[in-house]
Amino acid sequence: MTAGKSDSDSGFREFNVGFDDDGIRLDRWFKRHLPETSFTTVAMWARTGQLRVDGARATPGDRIAAGQMLRVPPPEADKAAADVDKPRRVRERVILSDEEIELAQSMVIHKDFQAFVLNKPPGLATQGGTKTTQHVDGLLDGLQYDNEGRPKLVHRLDKDTSGALLVARTSRAAAFFAKAFSGRTARKVYWALVVDVPSIEDGMIELPIAKQPGTGGEKMHVDDAEGAPARTRYRVIERAGNRAAWVELQPFTGRTHQLRVHMAAIGHPIVGDGKYGGAAAFLTGGISRKMHLHARRIKVDHPDGGSIDVTAELPTHFAESLKQLGFEEKLGDDLVLDEKTAPTREQMKSRAKAHAKSVRKDRKGERRGRGVVEEKATGKPAPKTGGPRTGAGSKFGAPRSGPRVEGAKPAGRGRPGGAGKPGPRSGPGTR
Q1: Which of 20, 22, 158, 160 does the annotation list as catalytic?
Q2: Measured distance CA(98)–CA(229) in Å, rounded
Q3: Predicted TM-score (pTM) of this structure
């Protein structure tokens, strides 16, 4: 998202839809970038014609696309709309048990006036849902202390993923961090154990992800036609023969289950992830069946200047698995965070446009291809109707030869992919 510009005459603000917001609902865009604006306010703006997308009236349920321009009423309209919407329901502070308060406070590994960083244990959901009664969001009242405002989640981790979770303590901080995550300036480093050893030790996975139809619940899959662009960098830290590898993962987009889907797609599911790896995701020899995915580190700019840079200790089952496989934690922390790997917003926008152009070109070629085949077979011009994309020249009609993985050097002797045991690397992005 490009920073909002104000129309000096009317006071209306203009925002350019960023690549990472391509395809989302308009109300979701407000939750990400203007969280202080309520849904009721957005709906009122839509009803009165004040909310516009590329000059046309819009509704909260409309899908938006990268490059579109949003026109939003001035900030003071938020308060006016809130006054119209009165009486407002005031959220009552939840009374937690002593055990729940103790659990909430035991997770805190960083605390300042604007934020907490929690070390979320595996098995605890970030937010509530069907049959989910205990979750991080429900425990945040135990971290309110003397603040009037309730702490706010700004991102989430899967239930079975452990590690660093950022929580804002003020509305200003929540808006600031939301922009950092949507703009991809926040950096997250994960550790994972994966099955087998990747042949490329330092690679970039670029595979689009979409919700898998007909599965029920929340399951994703790689989908070249309909998927949202997703990008993950991985680096092999150490290997246990050809049995398993310990890898560092850095997501440069924030798709649901992205790391799990990407690693399974290249043939190396995360250990314990039966949802995407099936039976092959479990190792024998006493290795825990819990998922081995941990948000090791989070680094993000601070609203008051400087940055938050916090490391979260491993859960017991993950630490024990590392020891059992002969790995040393120090090797993972010795890897230098490469600040230049993440693509810029302009680069991602350019890739999105190129992808859309490629899809349109392929579809046009498929329609022409079907027409030629039908005309030769029947002697009559083919009808101009749609249909499944099956042309021989189409990337949608032909099976893929394998997932796209950009990488550096394949592993060799003395490297994590070879016979020798590696030493710690001394520079960022060692290839």
Answers
A1: 158
A2: 44
A3: 0.64
